[in-house]
Structure formats: structure tokens, C-alpha cells
């Protein structure tokens, strides 16, 4: 993911002055290369695992360690000042976390950096606000205690951010840009934050109120994160620690993150083996401190903003970065080996070549999907016991619903559309299937039959087809066999795309 960083602003956060050349080289070695430089702005490519580096402050914190200007765990200032928050359990977004930061001298560059981080977190970890959303407020304008609760849309009323008139919850969803974009995340009720004077601060995860927005005059900031899953503590910690890098003092709020590092016992010998370099324990410790870890004997202290560190392999990767990949000796393997594709892969490739020859474009969709989507292809068979998201609850036993969903999400594309996928299905044993779907005004049974017949003839497969029923296809325009199905897609499903559809699915 690309973020924009102002060069002079970044330099002001480093403990020593460095040249642009040295800075870009350090970013490249760190694994966050500069994609482009335009005047005073660096476009930095941040890997998806380093959420803490989605802000100028996070990049500066990492570079201060990597360049040797600071070492070990970052030190932030804390304040005993607390904000009272009352939480009534939300049915819509039950997970919630808060923090506050005092004494930040806000400026245009700081606001731009933090808002950029907020939006990038919404898009990535937040899954476009469905999983997590984040809000920032001018604390000096708010009267505690702050309450979090669900309210009917008809009882919600405030001036949304960027607007100049008061609106009800329904009007916000219908009239504002953010309301239209995210109204599917709420129902007849929405979660709200209300201050001690009864003023609504925000309607999560849609939009904040204009009256308590953060400006260049803001000095004390209240932060919230609401979500449908655990992880809101991390979202709040990422923003609060970034503001603390600007000199702010963190106020711990309950419920909210503790900002304490997470300890992990590690074997330095295993780190050496993973990195592949003979290093002393002192050298490993120095490398870890460059990457902003704390070290207490054989115990590593992981900063609270590092959500990507789960195992000793993650620790070893950071040691390798600090040591310098360019300093690790390159060795040619003593044995030469030559691989060859499996017979199954060769067969799949033959099907792939045929489909491309027929004018289809290959796509890849998720094997894990949801029950509602899967029912379009038959009754779901294998469900996940403890799903992490509502969109990944069941193993697919058909690829066809995935292809329909993909076309539905891209129905503004030019037609005709012809897509296919080769991948695993579970019925319940794992098998490999090929599925294709055509979308255009003349899509019909005859067209898809011609494609299927050609595939089977070229692949020298003899199959007997019969009339049948299938939840994906029209009655009377469906052919079924022991290896698959093809036909015209039901009108109520074609309407989702806005175009007639014909499709097939075969076991390979």
C-alpha cells in the first residue's frame, strides 16, 4: 500500500538530519521502498503486515531505530488524566476501544498524516470499515462522561462532518457521501457516541459530528475504534502511539489498550539458524533493538503496535533486516535439482489453455465463502467451527456462486464478459473443478453446450448428459452428468448482473 510522506516533516521527526539519498536507501533496505518522489513528497510502499508504518510518525519511529538514532522500545509520555466512558453493549458493533492523547501541537502536516493512517487502516485491517472503524475528536469540546450505545436512526440527529445542517440518522445515510457508501453496515439502529451534554459525537462506522472535529487548534484528542471483531485495541493503539511520537501524552481509557509490550521467550540459537548467519547473542540483541524490540535476557518485548509478530520466525526476519540482507553471504546449493509439474497440474494447464482459446479470462476467488452464497450451488456441506468473519464460514462445494458474485461486483464493466476458474471444491472430499460463465445479451444454453462439448472432445472424455434440476440453473435448460452441470442461469440470478448468463462446472 502506498502512503504519501512529506520529506521535511519526516526529517523533523528523526533524531538526526539525513540526506534524501540516505533516507531512501534506508527505506529500501527496511522493506518499505520509495515508489516515487514528487517535489517534497515521498510515495512510500508499505507492506500489508506493517500497519504501524502507515503514518509519517510510524515510519520515523522505525527509521530512528534502523539508522541507530534510538534503540529498544519506544518511550512515550503518559498522563494520569482519564476520561470516563460508559459502554452499553452494541448488537451492531459489540467490540469497542478508546484512548486519549494530550498536548499535541496539531498542524496541517500532522492532521494529514493521521487522517491518511485512519483511512488506510479502514481499507486494510478494517475491511472498508466493516471489521473496524476509527474516530478522532477534539476532547476540549466534549463534556464527559462519554456514552456508547445503539440508537434507532430516527432518534439520531446531528450535523455530520463537512455539512452545515442537522440531519437524522436516515437522512445521513441517504444524503451524505459516507452515509451512502457505508449504510449497509448498519440497520434500523446505529452505534453512537454521546457526550455528557447529550450531544452525538459520531454514528459509527459512518461519520463523525462537525462540532467536535479535529482542527489545527486541537490540542487534546479522544480516539475510538468500534468493530465486529476483536482488534479494536490495536486500531486505537496504532493511532495513539503515532500521536505520541509528536510529543503527546497518552491517557489510558477503559475499555482500551494498556500500551504494554508483549513478552515472548525466544531461542537465540534458532534465530541464527533461520537467518543463516553466525551471530553472537550481543549482535542479535543489537539487531533486535534496532528494530525497536526490548530485550531482557532471552525474553523479547514486542511493542504494542506490532500486530504482525506471532512467532520466532517473525523475530528472525526482523533480525535479518537489521543485519542487512546484503550482508548475508550468497551460497549456491551443493546439489542441483530439476523439478517437473505434477501430472494433475499438466492436465489443469490443458484445460486452462482451452478456456483462454475460447476467449475466457481466468480469475481466482476464495475457497472459504459464506452459507448464503453457497446455497446458490447446493446445500453447504462443510462449515468452519469458529469463523473469523461472516464472509468466510463455509468451504465451497461449487465455484459457480463465486463467479456470479464476481460479475455482480463488476457489473459496470464492458460486455461481453467471459470468466473461468480452476480450483478446489469440497463435496465433501476435496476435488478440482473448472467452472466458466458467460455474460452478454445472447448468452444461452446452445452457446455453453458448444463450449462444454468442445472441451470434452478435445480432452477425450466421454460423458452422458441428462435433463436435471440445479439451484443455479433454469428448469428445462439444464444438463447434468456424473462430472458436472451446464445450462442457462436462473433469471433471478442473472438480474444481479443485469445480463443473461450461461455457465458450466466440471470435475477435472
Give a brief outline of the structure.
With 508 residues, the protein is of the alpha+beta class. It is globular. It starts with a strand and ends with a strand.
Short key terms for the protein model shown above:
15 helices; 508 residues; 28 strands; Phenylalanyl-tRNA Synthetase, Chain B, domain 1; 4 domains; seven-stranded mixed beta sheet; Phenylalanyl-tRNA Synthetase, Chain B, domain 3; five-stranded mixed beta sheet; alpha+beta
Written account of the structure:
Helices cover 30% and strands 26% of the residues. It has 15 helices and 28 strands. It has 508 residues and is α+β, with helices and mostly antiparallel strands. Helix 1 (7-13) packs across helix 3 (56-66). The strands form 7 sheets. It has a 7-stranded mixed beta sheet with strand order 19-23-24-28-27-26-25, sandwiched between helices. A 5-stranded mixed beta sheet has the order 4-15-6-14-7. A 5-stranded mixed beta sheet has the order 5-8-11-12-13, with no helix packed on it.
